[in-house]
Design brief:
One of its GO terms (biological process) is DNA recombination. The protein is an alpha+beta fold.
Protein backbone atom coordinates (compact mmCIF):
# COMPACT_ATOMS: atom_id res chain seq x y z
CA UNK A 1 0.00 0.00 0.00
CA UNK A 2 1.54 3.28 -1.14
CA UNK A 3 0.80 6.29 1.08
CA UNK A 4 -1.26 9.33 0.20
CA UNK A 5 0.99 12.34 -0.35
CA UNK A 6 0.50 16.07 0.33
CA UNK A 7 0.97 18.83 -2.23
CA UNK A 8 3.69 21.41 -1.55
CA UNK A 9 2.51 25.02 -1.57
CA UNK A 10 3.80 28.35 -0.29
CA UNK A 11 0.74 29.06 1.86
CA UNK A 12 -2.00 27.18 3.66
CA UNK A 13 -5.80 27.39 3.61
CA UNK A 14 -7.30 28.93 6.75
CA UNK A 15 -10.95 27.88 6.46
CA UNK A 16 -12.77 25.99 9.21
CA UNK A 17 -12.85 22.85 7.07
CA UNK A 18 -9.11 22.33 7.59
CA UNK A 19 -7.02 20.93 10.42
CA UNK A 20 -3.26 21.31 10.90
CA UNK A 21 -0.53 18.88 11.93
CA UNK A 22 3.21 19.16 12.49
CA UNK A 23 5.19 17.81 9.54
CA UNK A 24 8.04 15.63 10.74
CA UNK A 25 11.24 14.99 8.80
CA UNK A 26 11.71 11.23 8.64
CA UNK A 27 10.62 8.11 6.75
CA UNK A 28 6.99 7.56 5.88
CA UNK A 29 5.82 4.23 7.23
CA UNK A 30 2.72 2.08 6.91
CA UNK A 31 2.29 -0.16 9.95
CA UNK A 32 0.20 -3.27 9.23
CA UNK A 33 -0.71 -5.62 12.09
CA UNK A 34 -2.43 -9.00 12.03
CA UNK A 35 -2.79 -11.62 14.74
CA UNK A 36 0.46 -13.25 13.59
CA UNK A 37 2.43 -10.65 11.64
CA UNK A 38 3.70 -7.10 11.96
CA UNK A 39 4.81 -5.26 8.84
CA UNK A 40 6.41 -1.81 8.56
CA UNK A 41 6.78 -0.64 4.95
CA UNK A 42 8.18 2.47 3.28
CA UNK A 43 6.45 4.81 0.83
CA UNK A 44 7.96 2.60 -1.90
CA UNK A 45 6.48 -0.52 -0.28
CA UNK A 46 9.83 -1.86 0.93
CA UNK A 47 10.04 -3.60 4.30
CA UNK A 48 11.53 -1.57 7.14
CA UNK A 49 11.25 -4.31 9.77
CA UNK A 50 14.99 -4.99 9.73
CA UNK A 51 15.92 -1.29 9.96
CA UNK A 52 13.65 -0.41 12.89
CA UNK A 53 13.30 -3.46 15.15
CA UNK A 54 12.40 -1.27 18.15
CA UNK A 55 9.09 -0.36 16.48
CA UNK A 56 8.31 -3.98 15.69
CA UNK A 57 9.19 -5.05 19.24
CA UNK A 58 7.01 -2.31 20.72
CA UNK A 59 4.01 -3.49 18.68
CA UNK A 60 4.72 -7.11 19.63
CA UNK A 61 4.51 -6.12 23.29
CA UNK A 62 0.95 -4.79 22.88
CA UNK A 63 -0.23 -7.39 20.35
CA UNK A 64 -2.45 -9.22 22.89
CA UNK A 65 -4.32 -5.96 23.50
CA UNK A 66 -4.93 -5.61 19.76
CA UNK A 67 -6.48 -9.04 19.26
CA UNK A 68 -10.00 -7.67 18.77
CA UNK A 69 -8.84 -4.93 16.37
CA UNK A 70 -6.64 -6.76 13.87
CA UNK A 71 -6.06 -6.67 10.96
CA UNK A 72 -5.08 -3.08 11.70
CA UNK A 73 -3.25 -0.57 9.48
CA UNK A 74 -1.82 2.78 10.63
CA UNK A 75 -0.15 5.54 8.60
CA UNK A 76 2.69 7.48 10.20
CA UNK A 77 6.24 8.80 10.18
CA UNK A 78 9.38 7.10 11.51
CA UNK A 79 11.55 9.73 13.16
CA UNK A 80 14.42 10.45 15.51
CA UNK A 81 12.87 13.17 17.65
CA UNK A 82 14.77 16.29 18.68
CA UNK A 83 11.75 17.81 20.39
CA UNK A 84 7.97 17.66 20.16
CA UNK A 85 7.86 19.47 16.79
CA UNK A 86 11.19 18.59 15.17
CA UNK A 87 13.06 15.47 14.17
CA UNK A 88 16.66 14.83 13.18
CA UNK A 89 16.87 14.24 9.42
CA UNK A 90 20.58 13.41 9.36
CA UNK A 91 20.31 10.79 12.11
CA UNK A 92 17.35 9.02 10.52
CA UNK A 93 19.15 8.98 7.16
CA UNK A 94 22.17 7.28 8.71
CA UNK A 95 19.91 4.80 10.46
CA UNK A 96 18.02 4.01 7.26
CA UNK A 97 21.23 3.15 5.41
CA UNK A 98 22.55 0.73 8.03
CA UNK A 99 22.64 -2.93 7.02
CA UNK A 100 24.54 -4.44 9.94
CA UNK A 101 22.08 -6.21 12.22
CA UNK A 102 24.37 -5.67 15.20
CA UNK A 103 24.75 -1.92 14.61
CA UNK A 104 21.00 -1.56 14.11
CA UNK A 105 20.35 -3.49 17.32
CA UNK A 106 22.72 -1.28 19.32
CA UNK A 107 21.21 1.96 17.99
CA UNK A 108 17.67 0.68 18.50
CA UNK A 109 18.50 0.38 22.21
CA UNK A 110 20.72 3.45 22.67
CA UNK A 111 18.76 5.89 20.47
CA UNK A 112 15.41 4.35 19.53
CA UNK A 113 13.33 5.90 16.78
CA UNK A 114 9.66 6.71 17.18
CA UNK A 115 6.63 5.88 15.07
CA UNK A 116 4.34 8.91 14.97
CA UNK A 117 0.85 7.79 13.97
CA UNK A 118 -1.35 10.31 12.18
CA UNK A 119 -3.97 8.25 10.30
CA UNK A 120 -5.95 5.04 10.70
CA UNK A 121 -6.60 3.08 7.51
CA UNK A 122 -7.93 -0.32 8.55
CA UNK A 123 -9.65 -1.74 11.64
CA UNK A 124 -10.73 -5.37 12.12
CA UNK A 125 -9.88 -6.04 8.50
CA UNK A 126 -12.19 -3.32 7.16
CA UNK A 127 -10.71 -0.37 5.26
CA UNK A 128 -11.94 2.98 6.56
CA UNK A 129 -10.03 5.09 4.02
CA UNK A 130 -13.30 6.40 2.54
CA UNK A 131 -14.39 7.82 5.88
CA UNK A 132 -13.73 11.53 6.51
CA UNK A 133 -10.29 12.27 7.93
CA UNK A 134 -11.76 13.73 11.11
CA UNK A 135 -13.51 10.42 11.85
CA UNK A 136 -10.32 8.46 11.21
CA UNK A 137 -8.33 10.76 13.51
CA UNK A 138 -10.88 10.33 16.32
CA UNK A 139 -10.79 6.55 15.97
CA UNK A 140 -6.99 6.58 15.98
CA UNK A 141 -6.93 8.72 19.11
CA UNK A 142 -9.44 6.45 20.83
CA UNK A 143 -7.26 3.47 19.92
CA UNK A 144 -4.15 5.06 21.43
CA UNK A 145 -6.08 6.11 24.52
CA UNK A 146 -7.41 2.59 25.07
CA UNK A 147 -3.87 1.21 24.80
CA UNK A 148 -2.55 3.93 27.15
CA UNK A 149 -0.18 5.14 24.45
CA UNK A 150 0.96 8.80 24.28
CA UNK A 151 -1.64 11.18 22.86
CA UNK A 152 0.92 13.89 22.14
CA UNK A 153 4.39 13.82 20.62
CA UNK A 154 7.17 14.19 23.17
CA UNK A 155 10.81 13.18 23.00
CA UNK A 156 10.53 12.33 26.69
CA UNK A 157 7.67 9.85 26.17
CA UNK A 158 8.59 6.35 27.28
CA UNK A 159 6.66 4.71 24.46
CA UNK A 160 7.92 5.11 20.91
CA UNK A 161 4.42 4.71 19.46
CA UNK A 162 2.89 8.19 19.67
CA UNK A 163 -0.23 9.84 18.33
CA UNK A 164 0.09 13.02 16.26
CA UNK A 165 -2.62 15.44 17.42
CA UNK A 166 -4.05 18.15 15.21
CA UNK A 167 -4.76 21.82 15.77
CA UNK A 168 -7.43 24.09 14.40
CA UNK A 169 -5.24 27.15 15.01
CA UNK A 170 -2.69 27.43 12.22
CA UNK A 171 -0.91 30.51 13.60
CA UNK A 172 -0.25 29.03 17.04
CA UNK A 173 1.00 25.75 15.62
CA UNK A 174 3.24 27.48 13.08
CA UNK A 175 4.83 29.60 15.80
CA UNK A 176 5.52 26.50 17.89
CA UNK A 177 7.02 24.68 14.90
CA UNK A 178 9.18 27.67 13.98
CA UNK A 179 10.57 28.03 17.52
CA UNK A 180 11.29 24.30 17.71
CA UNK A 181 13.00 24.13 14.31
CA UNK A 182 10.39 21.83 12.78
CA UNK A 183 10.23 20.95 9.09
CA UNK A 184 6.83 22.46 8.46
CA UNK A 185 3.08 22.03 8.72
CA UNK A 186 0.46 19.96 6.89
CA UNK A 187 -3.09 21.17 6.38
CA UNK A 188 -5.66 18.42 5.84
CA UNK A 189 -9.28 18.81 4.83
CA UNK A 190 -11.51 17.42 7.55
CA UNK A 191 -13.52 15.40 5.03
CA UNK A 192 -10.58 14.15 2.96
CA UNK A 193 -10.45 10.48 2.07
CA UNK A 194 -7.20 8.53 2.18
CA UNK A 195 -6.17 7.82 -1.42
CA UNK A 196 -3.31 5.34 -1.82
CA UNK A 197 -0.40 6.62 -3.92
CA UNK A 198 -2.19 9.88 -4.77
CA UNK A 199 -0.67 13.34 -4.30
CA UNK A 200 -3.72 15.27 -3.22
CA UNK A 201 -4.62 18.92 -2.77
CA UNK A 202 -6.81 17.79 0.11
CA UNK A 203 -3.51 17.59 2.01
CA UNK A 204 -1.24 20.63 1.66
CA UNK A 205 2.24 21.04 3.12
CA UNK A 206 4.16 24.23 3.77
CA UNK A 207 7.80 23.94 4.73
CA UNK A 208 9.68 25.99 7.27
CA UNK A 209 12.28 27.40 4.89
CA UNK A 210 15.25 29.48 6.02
CA UNK A 211 17.21 32.14 4.16
CA UNK A 212 20.95 32.68 3.95
CA UNK A 213 23.53 34.58 1.92
CA UNK A 214 26.10 32.76 -0.21
CA UNK A 215 28.36 33.67 -3.09
CA UNK A 216 28.60 32.03 -6.49
CA UNK A 217 31.78 30.00 -7.00
CA UNK A 218 31.10 28.50 -10.41
CA UNK A 219 28.74 27.25 -13.09
CA UNK A 220 28.26 23.65 -14.21
CA UNK A 221 27.74 23.67 -17.98
CA UNK A 222 26.40 20.12 -18.04
CA UNK A 223 23.49 20.43 -15.62
CA UNK A 224 23.00 24.20 -15.44
CA UNK A 225 23.59 24.46 -11.69
CA UNK A 226 25.37 27.35 -9.99
CA UNK A 227 27.74 26.38 -7.19
CA UNK A 228 27.48 28.16 -3.84
CA UNK A 229 30.12 28.90 -1.23
CA UNK A 230 30.82 30.68 2.05
CA UNK A 231 33.94 31.45 4.08
CA UNK A 232 34.92 29.27 7.01
CA UNK A 233 38.00 30.40 8.92
CA UNK A 234 39.05 32.39 5.86
CA UNK A 235 38.76 29.44 3.46
CA UNK A 236 36.06 29.01 0.80
CA UNK A 237 33.89 25.94 1.35
CA UNK A 238 31.19 24.65 -0.99
CA UNK A 239 27.72 24.45 0.56
CA UNK A 240 25.52 23.42 -2.35
CA UNK A 241 24.21 24.14 -5.82
CA UNK A 242 21.18 26.05 -7.03
CA UNK A 243 19.16 26.36 -10.20
CA UNK A 244 15.52 26.54 -9.15
CA UNK A 245 13.81 29.82 -8.35
CA UNK A 246 15.46 31.96 -11.02
CA UNK A 247 13.59 33.79 -13.73
CA UNK A 248 15.01 33.54 -17.24
CA UNK A 249 16.22 37.15 -16.97
CA UNK A 250 17.99 36.47 -13.66
CA UNK A 251 19.67 33.37 -15.06
CA UNK A 252 20.76 35.23 -18.17
CA UNK A 253 22.15 38.13 -16.14
CA UNK A 254 24.04 35.78 -13.84
CA UNK A 255 25.58 33.87 -16.75
CA UNK A 256 26.67 37.14 -18.34
CA UNK A 257 28.38 38.31 -15.14
CA UNK A 258 30.13 34.95 -14.78
CA UNK A 259 31.25 34.99 -18.41
CA UNK A 260 32.72 38.49 -18.07
CA UNK A 261 34.49 37.78 -14.75
CA UNK A 262 35.37 34.10 -15.02
CA UNK A 263 38.51 32.45 -13.74
CA UNK A 264 39.42 28.95 -14.90
CA UNK A 265 37.19 27.31 -17.50
CA UNK A 266 37.02 23.92 -19.19
CA UNK A 267 34.41 22.04 -21.21
CA UNK A 268 32.36 21.31 -18.11
CA UNK A 269 32.81 24.08 -15.56
CA UNK A 270 33.44 27.81 -15.14
CA UNK A 271 35.03 29.11 -11.93
CA UNK A 272 34.50 32.60 -10.56
CA UNK A 273 36.05 34.38 -7.59
CA UNK A 274 33.70 35.32 -4.71
CA UNK A 275 31.89 38.49 -5.74
CA UNK A 276 28.27 37.67 -6.61
CA UNK A 277 26.15 37.43 -3.46
CA UNK A 278 22.77 35.73 -3.62
CA UNK A 279 20.02 35.02 -1.12
CA UNK A 280 19.12 31.36 -0.94
CA UNK A 281 15.99 29.77 0.46
CA UNK A 282 16.62 26.30 1.89
CA UNK A 283 15.08 23.78 4.25
CA UNK A 284 18.04 22.76 6.41
CA UNK A 285 21.67 21.67 6.32
CA UNK A 286 22.59 18.04 5.72
CA UNK A 287 26.24 17.01 5.81
CA UNK A 288 27.10 20.73 5.62
CA UNK A 289 25.13 21.10 2.38
CA UNK A 290 21.96 23.08 1.70
CA UNK A 291 18.82 20.97 1.45
CA UNK A 292 16.23 21.98 -1.14
CA UNK A 293 17.95 25.27 -2.07
CA UNK A 294 16.26 27.77 -4.36
CA UNK A 295 17.26 31.22 -5.57
CA UNK A 296 15.56 34.17 -3.82
CA UNK A 297 17.43 37.10 -5.31
CA UNK A 298 20.68 39.01 -5.71
CA UNK A 299 21.99 40.88 -2.66
CA UNK A 300 24.01 43.82 -3.92
CA UNK A 301 23.72 45.44 -0.48
CA UNK A 302 25.83 42.75 1.20
CA UNK A 303 29.59 42.50 1.63
CA UNK A 304 31.36 39.30 0.62
CA UNK A 305 32.69 38.82 4.17
CA UNK A 306 29.11 38.47 5.40
CA UNK A 307 28.84 35.14 3.60
CA UNK A 308 30.29 32.98 6.35
CA UNK A 309 29.71 29.48 7.64
CA UNK A 310 28.84 30.83 11.07
CA UNK A 311 26.12 33.10 9.69
CA UNK A 312 24.82 30.23 7.56
CA UNK A 313 24.53 28.08 10.67
CA UNK A 314 22.84 30.89 12.58
CA UNK A 315 20.28 31.29 9.80
CA UNK A 316 19.01 27.82 10.76
CA UNK A 317 18.55 28.71 14.44
CA UNK A 318 14.87 28.48 15.47
CA UNK A 319 14.60 31.73 17.40
CA UNK A 320 12.16 34.57 18.06
CA UNK A 321 12.01 37.33 15.46
CA UNK A 322 13.06 39.82 18.14
CA UNK A 323 16.51 38.21 18.25
CA UNK A 324 18.36 40.30 15.67
CA UNK A 325 22.07 39.66 15.24
CA UNK A 326 23.98 42.93 15.16
CA UNK A 327 27.57 43.61 14.10
CA UNK A 328 28.41 39.94 13.40
CA UNK A 329 31.92 40.80 12.18
CA UNK A 330 32.89 42.53 15.44
CA UNK A 331 36.23 41.21 16.79
CA UNK A 332 35.99 40.04 20.40
CA UNK A 333 39.49 39.01 21.48
CA UNK A 334 42.91 40.60 21.17
CA UNK A 335 44.96 37.41 20.97
CA UNK A 336 42.75 35.16 18.82
CA UNK A 337 40.59 35.75 15.76
CA UNK A 338 37.10 35.34 17.21
CA UNK A 339 34.31 37.45 15.79
CA UNK A 340 30.87 37.89 17.25
CA UNK A 341 29.32 35.60 14.65
CA UNK A 342 31.64 32.78 15.70
CA UNK A 343 30.69 33.20 19.35
CA UNK A 344 26.97 33.20 18.54
CA UNK A 345 27.44 30.17 16.32
CA UNK A 346 29.16 28.41 19.23
CA UNK A 347 26.24 29.21 21.56
CA UNK A 348 23.78 27.86 18.99
CA UNK A 349 25.70 24.63 18.49
CA UNK A 350 26.35 24.04 22.20
CA UNK A 351 22.86 25.09 23.36
CA UNK A 352 21.46 21.56 23.76
CA UNK A 353 24.29 20.78 26.17
CA UNK A 354 24.46 24.13 27.97
CA UNK A 355 20.80 25.04 28.48
CA UNK A 356 19.96 22.15 30.86
CA UNK A 357 22.42 23.63 33.37
CA UNK A 358 21.07 27.19 33.27
CA UNK A 359 17.41 26.93 32.30
CA UNK A 360 16.00 26.92 35.84
CA UNK A 361 18.53 29.09 37.67
CA UNK A 362 18.76 32.80 38.48
CA UNK A 363 21.34 33.95 35.98
CA UNK A 364 24.20 36.38 36.46
CA UNK A 365 26.18 37.24 33.35
CA UNK A 366 29.36 39.16 32.73
CA UNK A 367 28.94 41.29 29.63
CA UNK A 368 31.74 42.56 27.42
CA UNK A 369 30.07 45.18 25.15
CA UNK A 370 33.36 45.81 23.34
CA UNK A 371 34.75 42.31 23.65
CA UNK A 372 38.15 42.17 25.34
CA UNK A 373 38.87 45.65 23.98
CA UNK A 374 36.84 47.43 26.68
CA UNK A 375 35.41 47.21 30.16
CA UNK A 376 33.18 44.37 31.36
CA UNK A 377 30.38 44.45 33.91
CA UNK A 378 28.22 42.05 35.92
CA UNK A 379 24.53 42.00 35.10
CA UNK A 380 21.94 40.47 37.41
CA UNK A 381 18.88 42.62 36.72
CA UNK A 382 17.01 41.98 33.50
CA UNK A 383 17.25 45.22 31.48
CA UNK A 384 14.07 47.14 30.63
CA UNK A 385 14.67 46.70 26.91
CA UNK A 386 14.69 42.88 27.09
CA UNK A 387 12.00 41.37 24.82
CA UNK A 388 8.88 39.84 26.33
CA UNK A 389 9.91 36.26 25.60
CA UNK A 390 12.79 36.56 28.09
CA UNK A 391 11.72 34.73 31.24
CA UNK A 392 12.18 36.63 34.49
CA UNK A 393 12.23 35.65 38.16
CA UNK A 394 12.32 37.87 41.26
CA UNK A 395 14.59 37.27 44.22
CA UNK A 396 15.61 39.78 46.89
CA UNK A 397 14.46 42.83 44.88
CA UNK A 398 16.33 41.69 41.77
CA UNK A 399 14.55 40.73 38.56
CA UNK A 400 16.81 38.01 37.20
CA UNK A 401 16.90 36.57 33.71
CA UNK A 402 16.13 32.87 33.46
CA UNK A 403 17.76 31.59 30.29
CA UNK A 404 15.38 28.78 29.35
CA UNK A 405 15.52 28.79 25.55
CA UNK A 406 17.78 29.12 22.55
CA UNK A 407 16.22 32.50 21.82
CA UNK A 408 17.18 33.75 25.28
CA UNK A 409 20.69 32.33 24.97
CA UNK A 410 21.34 33.98 21.61
CA UNK A 411 19.77 37.25 22.73
CA UNK A 412 22.20 37.32 25.66
CA UNK A 413 25.03 36.31 23.35
CA UNK A 414 24.19 39.18 21.02
CA UNK A 415 24.44 41.45 24.08
CA UNK A 416 27.96 39.98 24.41
CA UNK A 417 27.31 38.15 27.62
CA UNK A 418 30.45 35.99 27.70
CA UNK A 419 30.25 34.42 31.14
CA UNK A 420 27.16 32.65 32.48
CA UNK A 421 27.25 32.26 36.27
CA UNK A 422 24.62 30.19 38.06
CA UNK A 423 23.73 29.58 41.72
CA UNK A 424 23.86 26.09 43.19
CA UNK A 425 20.10 26.00 43.69
CA UNK A 426 17.23 26.20 41.22
CA UNK A 427 14.49 28.83 41.10
CA UNK A 428 12.22 28.93 44.15
CA UNK A 429 14.55 26.74 46.18
CA UNK A 430 16.95 27.65 48.97
CA UNK A 431 18.70 24.28 48.99
CA UNK A 432 21.47 23.16 46.63
CA UNK A 433 20.87 20.87 43.68
CA UNK A 434 24.59 20.19 43.43
CA UNK A 435 27.85 20.38 45.34
CA UNK A 436 30.76 22.02 43.55
CA UNK A 437 34.38 22.09 44.70
CA UNK A 438 36.34 24.99 43.19
CA UNK A 439 40.04 24.12 42.83
CA UNK A 440 41.74 27.48 42.38
CA UNK A 441 45.53 27.59 41.79
CA UNK A 442 47.37 30.93 42.05
CA UNK A 443 47.88 31.05 38.27
CA UNK A 444 47.74 28.85 35.19
CA UNK A 445 51.41 28.08 35.80
CA UNK A 446 50.24 26.05 38.82
CA UNK A 447 47.44 24.21 37.02
CA UNK A 448 49.18 20.94 37.91
CA UNK A 449 48.05 21.54 41.50
CA UNK A 450 44.42 21.57 40.35
CA UNK A 451 45.01 18.25 38.59
CA UNK A 452 46.60 16.82 41.74
CA UNK A 453 43.75 18.05 43.95
CA UNK A 454 41.16 16.60 41.59
CA UNK A 455 42.93 13.25 41.46
CA UNK A 456 43.22 13.08 45.25
CA UNK A 457 39.54 13.99 45.59
CA UNK A 458 38.65 11.27 43.09
CA UNK A 459 40.40 8.70 45.30
CA UNK A 460 38.27 9.81 48.26
CA UNK A 461 35.06 9.91 46.22
CA UNK A 462 35.73 6.43 44.84
CA UNK A 463 36.08 5.09 48.38
CA UNK A 464 32.69 6.63 49.16
CA UNK A 465 31.34 5.20 45.85
CA UNK A 466 30.36 8.68 44.72
CA UNK A 467 29.83 9.52 41.06
CA UNK A 468 31.40 12.91 40.39
CA UNK A 469 31.88 15.13 37.36
CA UNK A 470 35.00 17.25 36.70
CA UNK A 471 35.15 20.34 34.51
CA UNK A 472 37.62 23.04 33.59
CA UNK A 473 36.92 26.46 35.06
CA UNK A 474 37.90 27.94 31.70
CA UNK A 475 40.47 30.11 33.46
CA UNK A 476 43.18 28.48 35.58
CA UNK A 477 41.59 25.74 37.64
CA UNK A 478 39.18 22.83 37.86
CA UNK A 479 35.78 22.30 39.44
CA UNK A 480 34.26 19.06 40.69
CA UNK A 481 30.47 18.78 40.47
CA UNK A 482 28.33 16.36 42.46
CA UNK A 483 24.60 16.27 41.58
CA UNK A 484 21.92 16.15 44.28
CA UNK A 485 18.20 15.54 44.37
CA UNK A 486 16.34 18.82 44.75
CA UNK A 487 15.80 19.80 48.41
CA UNK A 488 17.51 16.64 49.66
CA UNK A 489 20.25 18.47 51.58
CA UNK A 490 20.64 21.96 53.02
CA UNK A 491 23.64 24.23 52.58
CA UNK A 492 24.51 23.65 56.24
CA UNK A 493 24.67 19.92 55.58
CA UNK A 494 26.72 20.21 52.39
CA UNK A 495 29.12 22.57 54.21
CA UNK A 496 29.95 19.73 56.61
CA UNK A 497 30.92 17.55 53.66
CA UNK A 498 32.84 20.16 51.64
CA UNK A 499 34.75 21.41 54.68
CA UNK A 500 35.70 17.86 55.66
CA UNK A 501 37.09 17.06 52.19
CA UNK A 502 38.96 20.37 51.94
CA UNK A 503 40.52 20.15 55.40
CA UNK A 504 41.53 16.53 54.85
CA UNK A 505 43.43 17.50 51.69
CA UNK A 506 45.07 20.48 53.39
CA UNK A 507 46.15 18.30 56.30
CA UNK A 508 47.50 15.63 53.96
CA UNK A 509 49.20 18.02 51.51
CA UNK A 510 49.91 21.23 53.45
CA UNK A 511 52.55 22.43 50.97
CA UNK A 512 50.17 22.17 47.99
CA UNK A 513 46.71 23.12 49.22
CA UNK A 514 45.15 25.70 51.53
CA UNK A 515 41.79 26.96 52.73
CA UNK A 516 43.26 30.40 53.52
CA UNK A 517 40.91 33.09 52.18
CA UNK A 518 43.53 35.87 52.02
CA UNK A 519 45.41 35.62 48.73
CA UNK A 520 48.57 37.14 50.18
CA UNK A 521 48.76 34.32 52.73
CA UNK A 522 48.34 31.46 50.27
CA UNK A 523 51.75 31.63 48.65
CA UNK A 524 51.87 29.29 45.67
CA UNK A 525 49.35 26.87 47.12
CA UNK A 526 46.02 25.96 45.53
CA UNK A 527 42.97 27.39 47.26
CA UNK A 528 40.27 24.82 48.09
CA UNK A 529 37.29 27.15 48.03
CA UNK A 530 34.65 25.20 49.93
CA UNK A 531 33.15 28.43 51.33
CA UNK A 532 32.04 29.45 47.83
CA UNK A 533 29.47 26.66 47.91
CA UNK A 534 26.71 28.60 49.65
CA UNK A 535 23.37 30.28 49.08
CA UNK A 536 23.76 33.44 47.03
CA UNK A 537 27.07 32.33 45.54
CA UNK A 538 27.54 31.31 41.91
CA UNK A 539 29.76 29.14 39.73
CA UNK A 540 30.59 29.34 36.03
CA UNK A 541 28.12 27.26 34.01
CA UNK A 542 29.30 24.22 32.05
CA UNK A 543 30.22 25.16 28.46
CA UNK A 544 30.32 28.90 29.19
CA UNK A 545 32.99 31.02 27.53
CA UNK A 546 35.39 32.92 29.81
CA UNK A 547 36.31 36.54 29.21
CA UNK A 548 40.09 36.47 29.59
CA UNK A 549 42.74 38.42 27.70
CA UNK A 550 44.90 35.43 26.81
CA UNK A 551 42.30 33.52 24.80
CA UNK A 552 38.73 32.35 24.31
CA UNK A 553 38.59 29.28 26.52
CA UNK A 554 35.60 27.23 27.66
CA UNK A 555 34.50 25.93 31.06
CA UNK A 556 34.40 22.47 29.53
CA UNK A 557 33.12 19.30 31.20
CA UNK A 558 35.71 16.52 31.29
CA UNK A 559 35.88 12.76 31.55
CA UNK A 560 37.84 11.68 34.62
CA UNK A 561 40.46 9.91 32.50
CA UNK A 562 41.29 13.29 30.95
CA UNK A 563 42.23 14.77 34.32
CA UNK A 564 45.96 14.09 34.17
CA UNK A 565 49.26 15.88 33.65
CA UNK A 566 48.60 16.11 29.89
CA UNK A 567 45.45 18.19 30.38
CA UNK A 568 45.82 21.61 28.74
CA UNK A 569 43.32 24.39 29.41
CA UNK A 570 44.32 26.27 26.27
CA UNK A 571 43.28 23.34 24.09
CA UNK A 572 39.63 23.85 25.01
CA UNK A 573 38.62 26.51 22.53
CA UNK A 574 35.13 26.86 21.06
CA UNK A 575 36.08 24.85 17.96
CA UNK A 576 37.71 22.09 20.00
CA UNK A 577 34.76 21.74 22.37
CA UNK A 578 32.31 21.55 19.46
CA UNK A 579 34.44 18.88 17.77
CA UNK A 580 34.54 16.92 21.05
CA UNK A 581 30.77 16.68 21.41
CA UNK A 582 30.49 15.41 17.83
CA UNK A 583 32.83 12.50 18.52
CA UNK A 584 32.56 11.96 22.29
CA UNK A 585 29.58 11.84 24.59
CA UNK A 586 29.11 14.88 26.78
CA UNK A 587 30.94 14.05 30.03
CA UNK A 588 27.94 15.43 31.95
CA UNK A 589 25.41 13.37 29.99
CA UNK A 590 24.26 11.43 33.07
CA UNK A 591 24.53 14.38 35.45
CA UNK A 592 20.85 14.88 36.21
CA UNK A 593 20.14 11.16 36.39
CA UNK A 594 22.90 10.51 38.95
CA UNK A 595 22.01 12.26 42.22
CA UNK A 596 24.44 11.37 45.00
CA UNK A 597 22.60 12.63 48.10
CA UNK A 598 21.70 9.12 49.25
CA UNK A 599 25.44 8.37 49.40
CA UNK A 600 26.50 11.72 50.89
CA UNK A 601 23.92 11.97 53.67
CA UNK A 602 25.33 9.00 55.66
CA UNK A 603 28.82 10.46 55.26
CA UNK A 604 27.63 13.76 56.74
CA UNK A 605 25.99 11.97 59.67
CA UNK A 606 29.19 10.06 60.34
CA UNK A 607 31.30 13.24 60.22
CA UNK A 608 28.98 14.94 62.70
CA UNK A 609 29.11 12.05 65.16
CA UNK A 610 32.89 11.75 65.22
Amino acid sequence: MKPMLPTLQSSLPYQNEWIYETKYDGFRGILSITSTTISLTSRNEKSLNHSFPEIIETVEAILPSLSSLVPLTIDGEIVQLRNNHASDFETIQIRGRLRSTEKIRILSKEAPCSFLAFDLLEVRGSLITNQPLENRKHQLRDLFESLQLPLTVRKSNDNILQYVPYSTNYSELWEEISLKGGEGIIAKHKNSKWESGHRSKQWIKVKNYKRAHCFITGYDKENGYFHLGVFRNGVIIQVGVVSHGMSSDERSALLTIISENKGKENDFFIEIAPAIIVEIQFLSLYKEQLREPSFSGFRFDKQIEECSWDMLLLSTAPIHKEVVITHPDKPLFKTVDVKKEKYLSYLFQISDYMLPFINDRLLTVIRFPHGMFGEAFYQKNCPDYAPDFIKRAHSEDIEYIVCDSLSSLLWLGNQLAFEFHIPFQTINSKNPIEIVFDLDPPSREYFHLAVKAAQEMKKIFDQFQLKTFPKLSGNKGLQIHIPLTKNSLTYDQTRVFTQFIAEYLVTTFPDDFTVERMKKNRGNRLYLDYIQHAEGKTIIAPYSLRGKNDGAFIAAPLHWEEVNDELNIEQFTMDYVLDRIKTLECPFKEYYTSPQDSMIEPIIRKILTE
